[in-house]
Amino acid sequence: EDQVTQSPEALRLQEGESSSLNCSYTVSGLRGLFWYRQDPGKGPEFLFTLYSAGEEKEKERLKATLTKKESFLHITAPKPEDSATYLCAVQSAGGGADGLTFGKGTHLIIQP
Amino acid sequence: DVKVTQSSRYLVKRTGEKVFLECVQDMDHENMFWYRQDPGLGLRLIYFSYDVKMKEKGDIPEGYSVSREKKERFSLILESASTNQTSMYLCASSVEVMNTIYFGEGSWLTVV
After folding, report:
1. Full 3-state SS string of B48-79
2. How far is it, in rounded angstroms, from Cα A51 to Cα A27?
3. Residue B91's pLDDT is what?
4. Could you say which residues of chain A have pLDDT below 50?
5. How far, in Å, CA of A88 to CA of A72, rounded?
6. For chain B, give me the number of helices (H) and strands (E)?
7. Per residue in A55-83, is it b (16+ CB within 10 Å) or e — as a string?
8. Does B43 contact A36 at a Cβ distance shorter than 8 Å?
9. Does A45 contact B103 at a Cβ distance shorter than 8 Å?
10. Which residue from B65, B43, B104, B107 is spatially nearest to A96, judged by alpha carbons?
11. Torsion angle (degrees, nearest 10) of CA A97, A101, A104, A106
12. Which backbone phi and psi does A52 adopt, to 5 degrees?
């Protein structure tokens, strides 16, 4: 059974204080790893897809990286508007009907 | 940009009522999904559809049914709403199963 663990569950940072969110996974045959941002009361917004170890993707202050066991979402010099819950999901042949297993998310708060 | 639109953002229904949640996507995606999201439990797949009139059960299909009569539209039906179906419901779509999933804004359903 595929498993995804996100850490920490919650993270509070000062504006400009860079940090990383972790997504550890155990899957049988990774097809893709996805990062989403979710604002309170809204649906998840797609950020990145990573397919193979060593791959990196960037968007504004966010950079996602992938190894064979985990992915990191690095946030550089965050701003208050980066506050959200960040979800990680892995897709594999061993996942559910949709092939996906979601983590529980990291709730990120950026204080001005 | 991919657009997944859920017609009702907030609903309050009585126990035993029949509830319809509608979802439309504008990207000609083959696959559409219904999830529910609950605190501490994360995202769970209810049903998905890989073609018109085709459907597959997800992890928690009990108490729900779905309908897909047109490619762009996917409906979730609660035949007889119960209080334990109070949740946020998310519709999503993807061009193919093992591919990025895009979510709608969510529908908050309260059953009283």
Report:
1. EEEECCEEEECCCCCCCEEEEEECCEEEEEEC
2. 13
3. 97
4. none
5. 10
6. 0, 11
7. eeeeeeebbbbbeeebbbbebeebeeebb
8. no
9. yes
10. B43
11. -130
12. -145, 155
Do strands A30-38 and B10-13 pair parallel, antiparallel, or not at all (unpaired)? Answer: unpaired
Q: What is the mean pLDDT of each run of 10 residues along chain B (112 residues)?
A: 89 97 94 94 93 93 97 97 97 84 95 98
Please report the pLDDT score of residue A1 as a whole number. Answer: 82
Partners of B103 on chain A (C-beta within 8 Å) are 36, 43-46
Beta carbons within 8 Å of A9's beta carbon, 6+ residues apart:
A104, A105, A106, A107
> 3-class SS at A72?
strand
B4: helix, strand or coil: strand
Q: Beta strand B4-6 with A62-66: parallel, antiparallel or unpaired? A: unpaired
* CB burial of residue B56 (10 Å; 0-12, 13-18, 19+): middle
**A106 closest CA partner among A44, A57, A58, A52:** A44
Interface test with chain B among A34, A46, A57, A98, by most B beta carbons within 10 Å: A98
> Which amino acid makes up residue B82?
S
